[in-house]
């Protein structure tokens, strides 16, 4: 080596990779969920077809024998099909949340989720993108069902329909976040369907969507169910003209429901808790099925 020649050390490349913009991550994953859903038409039919059949068949079968108490003990003018409508809407949101979060298991199996997890992005942005996409899909199908109800004679104002749609998005966000928590620990769709059968569907049945419960142990179980307040909130917004009446003039089945403020507070807390759990569980390792 010639004398007097200094060797300059080569600076090592920085190991710190800047994070991608969270808003771009959220939008990209959300848009992917939307495109993926509408390319699979069987998911559209499955998510909305079965609840609509439930609404039509149960409404026709149980309607003649089911009576709701009106104001001061009189018979209510609301038919069972109208009473069951908010519960069917929440069932559509639940089914859509189930189908949307199944994609988490599929993405892990196909390797897409692994590439997302190693990318320099905040973990919460990945969770928000997946959950927001599922919630928007559920909202779109819920709006279609609202239009169907209006076409079949269900009385609702434009303001009431918009309020129901906004509240439905909050319920859909909570249910999709709950589905994310369950699906993240799953390695098979069979295990996810088992959880759906023994946990999510009974959760819907015990929410007052299918039948009211005024007293007894069943009523206490319903009060502890966070989905009860989602169904009650949709029902109060949908029948706002009856809710706005005085307590003595309200039908009995509506007077026993929680107030709209309570429904909104509990549903918002439910959404925040489930989304927080989704962000937390997304940072943990998966070791197999939850069961």
Folded structure, characterized:
- Helices cover 69% and strands 0% of the residues.
- The protein has 291 residues and is mainly alpha-helical.
- The protein has one domain (22-281).
- The longest helix is centred in the first third of the chain and has 31 residues, at 80-110.
- The relative contact order is 0.13.
- The model is unreliable at 5-18 and 71-75 (pLDDT under 50).
Radius of gyration: 24 Å
Mean pLDDT: 78
The total beta strand count reads 0
- Helix-strand makeup class: mainly alpha
- What is the count of helical runs? 12
The percent range for helix content is 55-70%
Q: Please report the distance between the alpha carbons of the first and last residues.
A: 68 Å
Relative strand content: under 5%
Order of helices and strands: HHHHHHHHHHHH
Low-confidence stretches: 5-18, 71-75
